[in-house]
Specification:
It is a single chain. With 344 residues, the protein is mainly alpha-helical. The protein folds into two domains: 5-201 and 313-342, HUPs (Rossmann fold, 3-Layer(aba) Sandwich), CATH 3.40.50.620; 219-308, Tyrosyl-Transfer RNA Synthetase (Orthogonal Bundle), CATH 1.10.240. Helices cover 54% and strands 7% of the residues. Bound molecules: adenosine-5'-diphosphate and sodium ion. Adenosine-5'-diphosphate (ADP) binds next to helix 1. Adenosine-5'-diphosphate is lined by residues 10-11, 13, 19-20, 23-24, 161, 163, 199, 201-202, 211-215.
Length: 344
Amino acid sequence: RPSRVILSGIQPTGIPHLGNYLGALSNWVKLQKSAQPEDKLLFSIVGWHALTLPQDPAALLAARNDMLAVLLAIGIDPNRSILFHQDHNPHHTELSWILSCIAPMGKLRRMTTWKSRLAAARNSGSEDEVDESMLNAGLFMYPVLQAADVLVYKATHVPVGDDQQQHIELTRDLADIFNRTYKGTSPLFPLPTYVNTPSKRILSLKDPTSKMSKSSPDVQSRILLTDTASQIQSKIRAAVTDSIQGITYDPEGRPGTSNLLTILAACTDSDVIQVAKAYESQGHGTLKRDVAEAVEEFLKKPRAQFDRIRLETTYLDEVARRGATRAIEHSKVTMMEVKTRLGL
Ligand code: ADP
Ligand code: NA
């Protein structure tokens, strides 16, 4: 089969939680393992996207470095994959502007990510214009920049969560509009394929009706990659479950218990139904003890690696610099073709 160009990105949000790790980042490592030698892999820390929300500059700088260290700690190999900061490659914003000039406003307005921002800003009875004035234009343009991230490398496969599927469809639309508007001898952009990563949705430990999230004010609701064994233990012990006897996997009826089973299965690389069966006649105490143990075992190595790598600032700078150089080498070719077609 033809070689693939696989691209994914993550915002620099500091230390990831178990949901980020199991739901997104661990898939990158699996992809890296399963890719063919001729497949190209690009993993990007998307600092420009982070600017759509208010950021403290010192915290953003730290978060960018921490995310790079995290990705190395969990096993992204900078010799195999192009690991880079999005904001180190100006071609992303350059292409983003070009795409914005062919992007239909109506399509952008229909993005559910935008609509939910707007809904959150909405005052009852006010005009859309008033609501929109509370939001920055970067939030509106977010999916166009994301399309540029993908297209600037002519990526063919984009593994992201299902909340991002609509953005990949927009990316295909923009690629297609560009290809039809600026016809050359052949279409310039391949239409990228959305790769649904078999992601596990990890729920909040304190409110298992919502997902584990960095934005929850309750720090007990999430396990961070850097949590110690005793922090993991106390968070799992305090996890909200139910008072039903025995253990069964029933995400609808028993979300808290099922979430613990999902975590246990993911951390031990086993099937959740099988795991549930093994705990059928056990109590929550036993389950929690084993979940805490499995999480600790699962996070031990990446945590140790992270603690070591985050201090190696010279190495981190070197990885970032080399990643940027390699990324730019690829995108430079695309940008030359794009500009030629545009008459620039
Ligand atoms: P958060 O919800 O904590 O703000 P982000 O929105 O920054 O996390 O998501 C970063 C990545 O992690 C995305 O690919 C997202 O799908 C994934 N992710 C976030 N939370 C979870 C979760 N609880 N379970 C599984 N995957 C998650
Ligand atoms: Na989020």
